[in-house]
Write a structure and sequence with these properties.
Blueprint lengths: L1 H32 L4 H23 L3 H16 L6 H5 L4 H22 L3 H20 L3 H17 L5 H23 L5 H11 L1 H16 L10 H4 L1 H5 L10 H30 L4 H20 L6 H15 L8 H8 L5 H7 L6
Length: about 350
C-alpha cells in the first residue's frame, strides 16, 4: 500500500518541479533582458490552481464537477468574441483560438462526465451536450472549434473500446509533437513551394510573418531569448500590424523567442507531464483518454494560435487535468486487494483500468 502510494505521488512531484521551473526560468530571463514575466507567472498560477481545484472536485463531485465545467466553458466561449476588438473576432489567431480551445475543453469535460455517471439517461444527455458544444462552435463561425470538438468526441467514443491507455496517450503525444514540428517548418520556410503557398494562404501572411520573426529571435538568442513580453517590441511584423497584441500566436515559438531553448523544453515538459499523470491516474481509461484528447486539442490550437494567453483557458486546462487524475480519498481494504490479486483481471476491467501502473 505504501509503495503504491509513493508510485502515484511521483506524477505530483514531477508536476510541482516542472511548474516551478517554468516560473523560475521566466524570472531569470526577465532579469537578464528586462522583460515582463507577469504573463508566464499568471499562466503557471492559473494552471496550478485549476489542477488543484480539479483534483478536489473530482473526488467530491465526480459527475457534477465536469458537467458544470462543460457548461461554464461553453458560456465563456460564447462570451469571448464580445470581449475583444472587432478585427480580432475574424482573425484566426486571436479570440477565435481561445474560443476553439474553450469549446474543446468543454466537450472533453462533458464526455468525461458521461463516462463517469452510471445513469444511462444522464449519460445520453451528456453526450448530447458534447455534441451541442460542437454545434455552438459552428454557430460562432469557428472551424477550428468544430474540428477540435468533433475530434474530442470521436476519440472519447473510441476510448470506450481501448484496452490499454499507454499506446493511446503516446499517440496523442506524437500528434502534438508533429503539429509543433510543422509549425516550426512553416516558420523556417522549409516546406516545398506549392505546400508553403497553400499553408500561407490558409494561415494568412501576417501570422506566418510573426512566426518567422519569432524563429529569427530564437536563432539570435537561443540561450535566454529576448525576454518575456518583449516580442512585440522587436518584431517588425507586429509593429506593422494594427491592432497588435505583441505575440507571435504560437506558444512554442513565443517561448523560443522570449525564453530560449529552455523555455520551449519547459513548455513541452508541462504537456508531457500531464500525459504522464493521466497514464498513472486511477480513473477509468475512457475518462483518462478523453481528457488526454481534449488537452491535445488545446495543445494543437495553442501551437498555431494564441489560446494560452487567456487565463480562462489555462484554468480550464488545469481543471480538466485535475478532474481526470483525481483519486479516491480512502484506499480499498488490504484484504480486498489480496483477494482481487488472486484472480486475473477480466476484459472489462482491462478496458477500464488497462495500461496504467498498478496502484
Amino acid at each position: 500500500m505504501h509503495a503504491a502510494g509513493e508510485r502515484r505521488n511521483v506524477s505530483d512531484a514531477v508536476g510541482v518541479t516542472v511548474l516551478a521551473g517554468c516560473a523560475v526560468w521566466s524570472l531569470v530571463t526577465a532579469a537578464v533582458h528586462d522583460g515582463r514575466p507577469e504573463g508566464v507567472l499568471l499562466a503557471v498560477l492559473a494552471l496550478a490552481a485549476g489542477y488543484a481545484a480539479g483534483r478536489i472536485l473530482g473526488v467530491l463531485m465526480p459527475v457534477a464537477a465536469p458537467c458544470a465545467a462543460a457548461l461554464a466553458g461553453l458560456a465563456l466561449a460564447v462570451a469571448l468574441p464580445r470581449l475583444g476588438p472587432g478585427p480580432e473576432i475574424v482573425a484566426p489567431p486571436g479570440h477565435t483560438g481561445a474560443t476553439a480551445a474553450a469549446l474543446a475543453l468543454s466537450a472533453g469535460a462533458a464526455c468525461c462526465a458521461a463516462w463517469t455517471t452510471p445513469l444511462p439517461v444522464l449519460r445520453l444527455a451528456l453526450w448530447l451536450l458534447a455534441g451541442g458544444v460542437a454545434v455552438a462552435g459552428a454557430l460562432l463561425g469557428s472551424t477550428a472549434a468544430v474540428v477540435a470538438c468533433c475530434a474530442v468526441l470521436l476519440c472519447s467514443l473510441a476510448a470506450g473500446r481501448a484496452q490499454q491507455r499507454g499506446p493511446a496517450l503516446a499517440g496523442l503525444a506524437v500528434v502534438a509533437a508533429t503539429v509543433a514540428g510543422l509549425t516550426w517548418a512553416v516558420a523556417g520556410n522549409v516546406l516545398p513551394g506549392s505546400l508553403a503557398d497553400a499553408v500561407r494562404d490558409r494561415l494568412t501572411s501576417r501570422r506566418v510573418g510573426l512566426w518567422r520573426d519569432a524563429l529569427g529571435m530564437a536563432h539570435r538568442e537561443s540561450g535566454l531569448g529576448v525576454g518575456p513580453g518583449r516580442f512585440g517590441e522587436l518584431s517588425e511584423t507586429a509593429a506593422r500590424s494594427t491592432p497588435s497584441d505583441g505575440r507571435p500566436h504560437s506558444a512554442p515559438l513565443q517561448l523560443a523567442a522570449e525564453q530560449g531553448v529552455v523555455g520551449v523544453l519547459l513548455l513541452a515538459a508541462v504537456f508531457y507531464w500531464v500525459l504522464f499523470a493521466l497514464w498513472r491516474a486511477p480513473r477509468p481509461t475512457p475518462v483518462v483518454l478523453t481528457a488526454g484528447a481534449a488537452l491535445t486539442a488545446l495543445a494543437v490550437v495553442a501551437t498555431t494560435g494564441n489560446a494560452l494567453s487567456f487565463t480562462t483557458v489555462t484554468v480550464g486546462a488545469g481543471l480538466l487535468a485535475g478532474l481526470a487524475t483525481a483519486r479516491p480519498l480512502a484506499e480499498e481494504p488490504a484484504a480486498s486487494e489480496s483477494s482481487e490479486s488472486s484472480r486475473a483481471p477480466s476484459r472489462c476491467e482491462q478496458g477500464v483500468h488497462g495500461g496504467r501502473p498498478a496502484a
